[in-house]
Amino acid sequence: MGKDGMKRMLQPRQARARFQSILTGIGFVFAAVGWLIVNEQRRRARVAIRDAVLHAPPQTQARLRSLWLWWKLRMRDPWGRCRAQLVAGAIGDVLEVGVGRWPNLKRYPQVARLVGVESNRRGVFLVRRRIRRFLPSAEIVYAPLDKLPFPDASFDTVVSSLALCTARDPAATLREIARVLRPDGRFLFLEHVRAQSPFAAALQRICTPLWRLVADGCHLDRPTLAAIHQAGFIVESLEERDGGWWLARPTFHGVARPPQMPRSVADATSKEAL
Ligand SMILES: C[S@@+](CC[C@H](N)C(=O)[O-])C[C@H]1O[C@@H](n2cnc3c(N)ncnc32)[C@H](O)[C@@H]1O
Fold first, then answer.
1. Does 38 have pLDDT greater than 70?
2. In the prediction, which pLDDT does 141 show?
3. Residue ranges of the domains in the chain?
4. Into which CATH architecture does domain 78-273 fall?
5. Which residues have any ligand 1 atom within 6 Å of their CB?
């Protein structure tokens, strides 16, 4: 084929490529303008709502406030109230496992050190922003729960809130929690577990495959309390908590001591420390 023939073949292809890049460019411009318009409308709507609320009669304001609280407590974070009670018991060096977007962060009392562990980096910007806003001294570490990157006996408190239902290997996670806890430390947990009624448990089992897809891998039917006992934790207190989605009940708030080491192992450990 001569030079002219080649040129003739390339021309339509080049023209198509140019046309496609122009279309892509126009698409980007439309998307950017659309985004700006939507953002501006949202800002205006927020300002209008705020003004309407600020100028509403006090009775309406009170009603709106309770509606907002109801939405926050019941719909947006149905476990909200339980979280504050859970972390209130944290003292000393504290590790929270499976923090997600770290909704508990702002509820912590003053502690010596607070570290969160999470494997999913999806909400990383949000978590960092929350740390800056609520507790700049807190640290976030991205690591698997079943291989915690901390030395033995390095925390006074380990907190798990709704993390064991998602953990890839709950038994290994509990072993790791026991390992990083100091012998006189405490494990604070808020976990929903498999229902006692056979009907509800069967429903949880049936719904779990679909639920896992929409709820970040959460299992509705895990016997988490039994797993905590099997891991050797000594449960000091256990209370059922109201809250959470109907299918993910019952939920328990518990405080447990780490498994006691056999005396020979404990002695060897303390001799090594000396
Ligand atoms: C249901 S969310 C709970 C989030 C938060 N603790 C709360 O109270 O809302 C469970 C979190 O545990 C994390 N997780 C599950 N398995 C994990 C693993 N093996 N290693 C690290 N994080 C894990 C998930 O990524 C998820 O963010």
1. yes
2. 96
3. 1-55, 78-273
4. 3-Layer(aba) Sandwich (3.40)
5. 98-100, 103, 118-120, 144-146, 161-163, 166-168, 216, 218
